[in-house]
Structure formats: structure tokens, C-alpha cells
Amino acid sequence: MSTFVNYEPHRIVRRRQLVDEVIAGMHELLASGRYREGDKIPTEGQLGEMFTVSRTTVREAIKVLAKTGILEVQQGRGTFVARRAPGKEPLENRLVRAREQDVYEARLLLETDIARLAAQRRSEEDMLVMRRCLEECEMAFKQGDAGRYLSYDAEFHVAMSEACKNAILLDVYVAFSDALRDSLRRRWELDWSAGSEERRAGMLASYRDLYQAICDGEPEKAAAAAAAYIGQMYTMRE
């Protein structure tokens, strides 16, 4: 007769979800700038109260963050924001703690140059992909679907990066956008529900201008439209 281990899958799944939620919360806490490299973070008990979870859940989340090099656990002293040598930290970890202004400036420089090159080098196939993404974004905008808008926005920008015909720029952009995707999604969904419809409409208009400038082969107009779009994206909360 077979012997089965008695366990409850739903509890395991729920616990994993709680750990992921604490990890996401810790990312936001560190990204806020409240704790810098070398700073000691609250105790497991304090974090448990903050996130309304058990100390065990907090401990598991800290282990994950320590493995990725974001936190450093010092026996008998506590947990600290890890110190990293410049240029040695993985991009995803670095972006967690980056100031929003730094992220904005990096995206502005990267995407304006990508847009400029895309306007010079795009193919008909590139434009078909970008057009489809733009139409999906417009539909999502009309339906008030922030998640769908973000998904197709990401696809549009990857297609734009592919259109610039520079493999290194494409890899850099994809790595950069992947690292930012979750934080951008959470921020945008909040902004979408609380932000101004007029502001979002202006952002969508800049999006159309970006597509048209690339389609028309106008590098400087494309760069300007990309700058306008990124600028509006980072002022949605104002």
C-alpha cells in the first residue's frame, strides 16, 4: 500500500505569494531612498509588522534578497543594504535603488538615440509591428486597461529598438526595460486610476508622433517625440 505525504498545496502557494509580496515591498522601500548602501534595515519583527506577515516570511524574503546581493545579513548585527563596487552590481539590482531622476535621464538618453536610428533604418516589417502595438495601446487607452497598455507599450519599444539595427542597443534596452517592468507596472496602474485623463491623452498623442516620425524617416522629429513621451510618462504623478 502506498504512503502519501500529507501536505496542503494551497498553503505552500500562499506562503510563496507572501514571500514575493514582501520582496516587492522591500524593493519599493529601498527604491524610495529611505535606506542607502550600508544602512541597517528594520528587524524581522518590525518588517513583519510593516508588511503584516510572520517573521518566517520576512526571513525567507531576506534570504532571497541577500542571495541577489541587495541585502547583507551580518550575524549578531542585523541586516544591511549591501555595499557594491561601482560597475559590479547587476543592472536589475541597481535599478531597485536608483533615484527616479536617474532612471528618467537614462531612459531619455537611450530612447531618443534609439528613436533617431530607428527613423533612419526601419523596415516595412518594423513599421507593421509598431503600428499594431500602437493600435493596441490606443484600444487599451479607450478601455481604461492599464495592464494591456503597458504590455503593448513594451512591445512597441522593443520593436523600435529592433528597427535601429544595432544589436548592442537592443540588448541594452531589453535588459533595462525588463529590470524596470514590475516597478513601472505598479506605478502606472496607480497613476492610471488616479491620474488625469487629459495628461494620458497628451502622452498618447506623443506616442502617435513618435510612430509617425519613425515611419516618415525623420530622425530629429523621432528623437523629440521620444523625449516628449518619456517626459510625460515621468510627470504623470504631478
Structure explained in plain terms:
The structure is a single chain. Strand 1 (71-74) and strand 2 form a beta hairpin. The protein is mostly helical. It has two domains: 9-81, Orthogonal Bundle (Arc Repressor Mutant, subunit A), CATH 1.10.10.10; 99-233, Up-down Bundle (Four Helix Bundle (Hemerythrin (Met), subunit A)), CATH 1.20.120.530. It has helices at residues 9-31, 44-51, 55-67, 91-97, 100-121, 124-143, 146-163, 167-194, 197-216, 219-233; strands at residues 71-74, 78-81. It has a two-stranded antiparallel sheet. It contains ten helices and two strands. Helix 4 (91-97) runs parallel beside helix 8. Residues 1-10 have low confidence and may be disordered.
Number of domains: 2
CATH fold-level name of the largest domain: Four Helix Bundle (Hemerythrin (Met), subunit A)
Major sheet size, sense and barrel closure? 2 strands, antiparallel
The spatial strand order of the largest sheet comes to: 1-2
Order of helices and strands: HHHEEHHHHHHH
Helix content: over 70%
N-to-C span: 67 Å
Quickly name the level 1 CATH class of the largest domain: Mainly Alpha
Class by helix and strand content? mainly alpha
Low confidence ranges: 1-10
The CATH superfamily of the largest domain turns out to be GntR ligand-binding domain-like
- Whole-angstrom Rg: 21 Å
Shape-level CATH architecture of the largest domain: Up-down Bundle
Number of helices: 10
Mean pLDDT value? 80
Q: What general outline do the C-alpha atoms trace?
A: elongated
- SS elements, strand count: 2
Strand content: under 5%
